[in-house]
Amino acid sequence: MTLNEQLTQDLKDAMKAKDKTKLNVVRMIKTALTNAKIQKGTDLSAEDKLQVLSTEMKQRKDSYAEFEKGGREDLMAELKAEMAIVEKYLPKQLNKAELSDLISETIQETGATSMKDMGKVMSNLMPKVKGRADGGQVNQIVKELLTNK
């Protein structure tokens, strides 16, 4: 089942179940995908769709952090539910151990020895983890591993 078919089916299911949160999130995702398709002028590739989904997730994570600072527990709970729905459409996220292994492997491939080589490592690494790991977390682990060399 393609992403669009899955979204359409989930939209129908959410309507039948009267699940407003899921309905709103699925509609937002479908709208974001449609807008990206219009902006690109052609059908979206799997990578383009992944980028749109990643952007949707990042927006929610950023909002969550802001609500956390403001002590808005009510909005945080709602966003947490939304993030769980968006996460369903993203590829399985890498855990910290898997991510560290992949980063170590990339550091060896690129021959990086210090923080000066961080750009080289990141440019080789990001396509491998696209959509499967948070960029901030990747950046942090790369810094830790390069400073310990």
Automatic annotation (TrEMBL):
Gene3D superfamilies: 1.10.10.410, Uncharacterised protein YqeY/AIM41 PF09424, N-terminal domain. GO terms for molecular function: carbon-nitrogen ligase activity, with glutamine as amido-N-donor. It holds the Pfam family YqeY. InterPro entries: Asn/Gln_tRNA_amidoTrase-B-like (IPR003789), GatB_Yqey_C_2 (IPR023168), YqeY/Aim41 (IPR019004), YqeY/Aim41_N (IPR042184). This is GatB/YqeY domain-containing protein.
